[in-house]
Amino acid sequence: MLRTICLSIVLSLLLSPGVIQQASASKGQSQQAPSAGLFTAPVAGPIRYSSVPVDSGAAFDPNDPRTWYTMVWAGRYSGPAAQRVEGSGGHPGVDIRDRYGEISGDLGVYAIADGIVIRRRRASGWGNFVAIRHDNVGGLRTFYSVYAHLDSFDPSITSGQEGHIRVARGQRIGTMGSTGLDNPAARHLHFQIDKTWPEDKNAPFWPTYTEDGNAIPYPVGSDDQLTQAQLQEAAAAVRANTLNPMLLVETGSDLSCPGPYPESAHPYTNNFDFTWTYTCPGATALLVTFDSQTEVERGYDFIYVMDGSGTNIDGSPFTGTELAGQTKTIPGDTVKIRLTTDGSITYWGFRVTNIRACDSCGVIFDFDGESGTIQPIVIIEQERYVRPPFGHEIDEENDPDTQRFIDRYFRSGRQYRLLFGGGQVGTVTVKEPTEISCVSLAATVELQTLIDLDGHALATDSTSWGWPQSTRRPPTDREKTAALFLAREAYEQNGVPRSLLQNVDIVHLTAVDLDNDGKHELIGNFQITESSFGPWDTLLLIAEPKDTGYRTGLAWYHKAVDGDGFDTEVRELVDVLDINGDGIGEVFILRSTYATWSYMIYKRQDGQWRSIYEGGGGGC
pTM for the full model? Predict the structure, then answer.
């Protein structure tokens, strides 16, 4: 009987990549609201599909099964409605297409939660597929996630035997494909969650629905039926502890944000107050360009440019010609533009001429595994490196820049990708910001990863940065010997007496493949203590492979004179990440002095390592 039931529910999904919504006007508005025909992008009708997926931006509602776990948020389902199921009868999963139709390049597929790969093979109908067992995720009973039609398996899961391969939440496991399908052009991910596997791999973990929306008892045909309260409890746990398998799909230039775009009347009218909202689903950040004619009455009429939460961007509100011809970066996938006018004198107004997703925008944090916190290093807006609020600039708790940053990035429940050695190894979820002081700006986070991480790593909201897997590992004894040799050589070149060279200590040393050529560079910091009380001579070293050995790529040296350590400076590795897409990882450094610290980014340019950024941190 189950095979004859369409396991589907009705959900209205906005398929248009760019959607404009309108807010009501006030202040005795005399200008008519923009017409729907001009400003509202088309919205698709209801889409019927199986399981209970949801737009990831939707609020959790324990009474609405559509919000019970994060699902496709910027893709669409394959084919017309009559062809969305594979074969006849029930379809205990969901077909997730690439974002807006067939696009070139690999689209990553990611594990929704920590687990163990129990199947990684090719099968008739499913093609290449992966099945993962998830134990005690959020206190839940064991369940299984299945990912089918993969084009390829990620190298991180190809070594080891089925049943012994551990994966972390958010770890890449393969790429979207069409294996097992008769039509190679029908590339999509078949995704399902099962309560048992493989004995009954088509027994959905979730209650399922008939065409008219009536729930089928869970589990189907079993005495082990959960109560509504138990379902709600399980739903909340999964909602908080799983990821959309396509949530981290690479965006790049493939994510388009078509018009129409927000625009006022020309000229606008007096006593006007109206807010336009534009959303480009899936974008990490938006680049919004304003017409060169944009102008409002200076000092009396204002244009507010805000993110989706209503938080003003830097400089907002704008007046006069401040926005004319300008491109502004808005974090997230939504921009809100509000125009307010007084009772006299009007000008041309504004027009947005273009909105595009920024594939090289995002915030990067230092994750400190020892304290369980994240601290901002840099905000990147294309090629512009923006410093986050810094300790010495925070005069009081209501500092507007600081509060704006907290509202935007330290919102409880906000999740960031965790990167280690350039590759994703899990996620961190914000608990709450720490108490603001002159020391630093930070938030406590919950860590989700399977690796042992008590040191530093990076966290980001960008979905485009990062390699398929981490290339970072502890150094071998041979690599330690080579690094010590180069460190002593650098100390001697900086005038350190030979009698002290045997006192060189490795403080920290890491091997990491910075250019993905299969050869690991060595990054470490060293010190010489002239006595038990100091002073300390410190060194930062980047050693590059050469033939069968290593050569010095960077040697930064600092000599402390004060025996109490007040003039000591240490530079140590946080992590590496390729942020400009040139195939070479930038090196993120923590620079510490007696009373302050900041972050630096080193980049290899013209064969030399150069510092290209310093900011963030704290101190008193």
Answer: 0.58
